[in-house]
Amino acid sequence: MTSTLNFNINGIKECQRNRHPLLFVDRIFDVIPGKKASGLKCFSYNEWFFPAHFDDEPNVPGFIQVESLVQTFIMSFLSMDDLRGQKTNFIGINNAKFKRKIIPGEILTIHSILQSFRRGIATGSALSFVGDEPACSADFVVAVPFLLDQFKPKSTS
Amino acid sequence: MSNLDKYRTIFIESFEYSGIIEDLEYQAIAEWDSVGHMQLMAALEDSFSIELDVDDIIDFASFKKGIDILAKYNIVI
């Protein structure tokens, strides 16, 4: 049986470089480094964006939902010992779907799978729920620039 | 499809490039950056069923240079 890893907010900050006000996952659990990671994000009305999106109908903007998904996804590989603390860049987002409005007081539960990690390019997917109800999902391609730089040609001669 | 056709198609599809593919070099177009390079290497490995060594990935700096490198893997372009 494979044991899984869990990360509180300090552990998350040791693995990835996103910080307030752009850190959108509170807890990571059920991690098998190099394979999968799950996460929780609790949305309180104290979030900076709720008063602006929208003042009469606060709900989580789509781009922040995507950040919650991808910040959970990157923990599937940034939890590996040799990658902890590395920066990441988006390469692609595909098949993003938003099935449900997320409002203050709700908790988003995210499950992500790392399909491949090859020389600094990670591909995979994440899907999320509020309770039992499907929320948002997407497929991702994410790069680790530190690793890419080790493989790029040094000259054209 | 010949190996040359396959090789050309990988470049064209990886970089969505319609110019003279035989003259392409690393960073000659915006699409062949470090990310594009890794995607090109992955496409070549998948298409020719090979696994490139790190030194060859670093040396793979042009369309023409790539032909010499693939010859080391018994892929004759």
Q: Shape of chain A, please?
A: globular
Unreliable spans of chain A are: none
Secondary-structure class of chain B: mainly alpha
Total helices of chain B: the number is: 4
Largest sheet of chain A: 7 strands, antiparallel
Blueprint of the fold:
The complex is a heterodimer of chains A (157) and B (77).
Chain A: E1 5-7, H1 9-15, E2 27-32, E3 36-42, H2 62-73, H3 75-78, E4 89-98, E5 107-118, E6 121-130, E7 133-143, H4 145-148
Antiparallel strand pairs in A: 1-2, 2-3, 3-5, 4-7, 5-6, 6-7
Chain B: H1 3-15, H2 34-48, H3 54-59, H4 63-71
Helix pairs in contact in B: 1-2
What do you see in this structure?
The complex is a heterodimer of chains A (157) and B (77). With 157 residues, chain A is of the alpha+beta class. The model of chain A has no long low-confidence stretch (mean pLDDT 96). By secondary structure, chain B is an all-alpha fold. The radius of gyration of chain B is 11 Å and the shape is globular. Chain B has one domain: ACP-like (Non-ribosomal Peptide Synthetase Peptidyl Carrier Protein, Chain A). In chain B, helix 1 runs antiparallel to helix 2. Chain B has 4 helices and no strands.
